[in-house]
Fold:
Amino acid sequence: MVVSLRYGRDEVSVDVPKSAEVTLIRKPKMPIIDNTSMEIDKILSNAVGAGVLGELINGAKTACILICDITRPVPNNLFLRPLINKLVNLGIALGNITILIATGLHRPNEGKELEDLIGDPWVLKTVKVQNHFARDDGAHVEVGITKKGNRVLLDQRFVSADLKIVTGLVEPHFMAGYSGGRKVIAPGIAHAETITTFHSSRYMEDPLSANCNLQGNPLHEDQLEIVEMVGGALAINVVIDEHRNLSFINFGEIVSSHLEAVDFIRKYAEVTVQQRFKTVLTSCAGYPLDLTYYQTIKGMVGPIDILEKGGDLIIVSNCKEGMGSEEFISAQQRLVKMGATGFLKSILNKKYADIDEWQTEMQLKPMRIGSIYLYSEGLSEKDWAYTGVNRVTDLEACIKQSLIRHNDKRIAIIPEGPYVIPVLSNGL
Structure:
């Protein structure tokens, strides 16, 4: 059986042994919006939570639109121009509209990458498009302190805008439950201090900070508080299928519209599975999510519910841009030097996580269950020393060895990686 997994801008095909008992885990077929322009016009005129809409728009002279950075395949080319035109019709001058890229602690998006991200030359020529820089102290203002005692500093360009709009992809997120909506504000345009608070172990080690869970999720709760601190916002939420076709889009009050999008994607992204497996093959969903090893860890966390203790998690990820930030590399070096137990002990009592060390902490979750095997052509020899995982040069041989090692023919395969979350039917 030949199975294709997303890998970079292409796919990698794997010939699974004929003797293997394959469980293919992917989304059910999703609806596709054929006439996207008509649908976008429709949602812009029929907002979710319309009662709040008027309050937020009334008298607005300036607008700030948040968009996700290049790590999210959001079809900005479809909705940014219609959204801008709507704002103009509401009386907001083009010169008073800013698009702010919610980079979090990621690098800025510039040049050809920025053009690809926006996807519409008219937008780039017509309104200001700027990156958020989380470490620029002078660019942020304090908006409040959460009930958990966390100081919230946000980009002043967003805070000072009369009309605040967020846009983003709604998909499973291994810490916030689901991405999009309130998450685009924090950590999207938050100061490094606020972000590293969210990335501390008291959030990371909370069992409710997990894929597909919003109920009692401490990060989600803080994010909802932050929405209130800024006086509310509007949102465009999108959902795409495994081929990146638009499957769902809505517009409206940020909290209610986001929950509507979550209700939609849940039916497809959370796939019930009847058993655990000693061999699991997955991906990091290809470009743009698999640009770095840093992002690859999301693909490792997605299947942990179905990975049997002592089993093998095999993942493909291109990692064209290498490991990620210098801070992340430093955290990985500590992991390799200290081991999983030692690394965890070193961070448990921190109020503020070191920048990007949280992703290393997330890698501990699959490591506690089994062994991780990575196929990647983008990592250098130096990079491999800091991954803390097993290197794979022959995928098919790796799969065969795993099946033999465990004396178990069963294998679960998840071609779309972290966009599909397998959930045990019995919860065990």
In short: The chain has 15 helices and 20 strands. The longest strand covers residues 307-316.
